[in-house]
Amino acid sequence: MTLTAPDASARIDAEQEAELQARFDALIEADQRIEPRDWMPDAYRKTLIRQISQHAHSEIIGMQPEGNWISRAPSLKRKAILMAKVQDEAGHGLYLYSAAQTLGISRDEMTEQLITSRARYSSIFNYPTPTWADMGAIGWLVDGAAICNQVPLCRASYGPYGRAMVRICKEESFHQRQGFEILLELSQGTPEQHAMAQESVDRWYWPALMMFGPPDDESPNSAQSMAWKIKRFSNDELRQRFVGMLVPQAEVLGLTLPDPNLRWNEERQAWDMSEIDWTEFNEVLAGRGPANAQRIQHRRDAHEEGAWVREAAAAYAEKQAARERVAA
Ligand code: FAQ
């Protein structure tokens, strides 16, 4: 072999990579989808794995605050609706784990990252649900924020993620309406029920605004994710849009949003609002929120208690495969 060969092949590789990068850039520029078999830059793959797995974990951990009320729902109808909603969240987690798997990470790795607290999930699910009205506030505010954030993700440049989001958003929209309806019924009920609805909205409003992430000038991932057309709007843009959606709905509900400084600023064409308590947000992200430890412990216990199901499924699959080998 001559000395020039490795250099030549390296040059070809670099050229090939530049071509692949150019093709990727052109697809993004033309608003086309990137699919699992397409070449993609490592950083794009990593960002997607991070965001999609965090999103999947959020859906799975997000089952806990509402799961708390399934056995205590005030009527059979409410119980059935709540069970269906929590099951939908499990389904969303599964679509999203599958979408992340197309990028080369296994479900086991993602689960391991979650139960060893190496992965993030949405801050919102680290708050407790002491009253029934919290089921209304979660539907109205948390699913409402999720929809606002996720409708633009239906156009995310990565095909499996965007397609998963289409179905998820349809279900989230039903979830939001059921939450609104719980709050409306409470708000129009006895003075005690009205007060319970208001108290719950007071507790969930600010954490729901935090779901959109840090302010734009402190969001390290936004610029690149927007250039790759994973995110279509910045964190602050979506937060503004969400507040604009809530204001008229709160009026219909007869409830108040707990921000005395909230008003439309005609000049800025934006909502003026009080400063979000970013210290609280950072504390929750650091694992020191009101329910972080409980949520992870619960997930860990469920994983351990479910080991026999995974083992049985694997043994069954192996038996089936052996039967097929014999038959072939
Ligand atoms: N909580 O640079 P950015 C749901 C982290 S699903 C925790 O702005 P990015 C359905 C962020 O990961 C709710 N961590 O990051 C449901 C990053 O950390 P890293 C989940 C947060 O990715 C309803 C760092 O801060 N939805 O609710 C949060 O560009 C009812 C810097 O932030 C999604 O996951 C937070 N709130 O923008 C279920 C939607 N915010 O990884 C049950 C998809 C930021 O660099 C019941 N995700 N961080 O260490 C997204 O749209 C984005 O990932 C953002 C964050 C907007 C969340």
Automatic annotation (TrEMBL):
List the GO terms this entry assigns under cellular component, sorted alphabetically: cytosol
Organism domain of life: Bacteria
Question: InterPro entries, per this entry?
Answer: Aromatic_CoA_ox/epox, Ferritin-like, Ferritin-like_SF, PaaA, PaaA_PaaC
Keyword Nucleotidyltransferase listed = no
What EC number(s) has UniProt assigned to this enzyme? 1.14.13.149
Keywords (alphabetical) are:
Oxidoreductase
Q: Does the keyword Iron apply?
A: no
Query: Which of the seven top EC classes does this enzyme belong to?
Result: oxidoreductase
Give me any GO biological process, just one.
Answer: phenylacetate catabolic process
For this chain, one GO molecular function annotation is:
phenylacetyl-CoA 1,2-epoxidase activity
Q: Which residues cross the membrane?
A: none
Protein name (record):
1,2-phenylacetyl-CoA epoxidase subunit A
Q: Which organism is it from?
A: Agrococcus sediminis
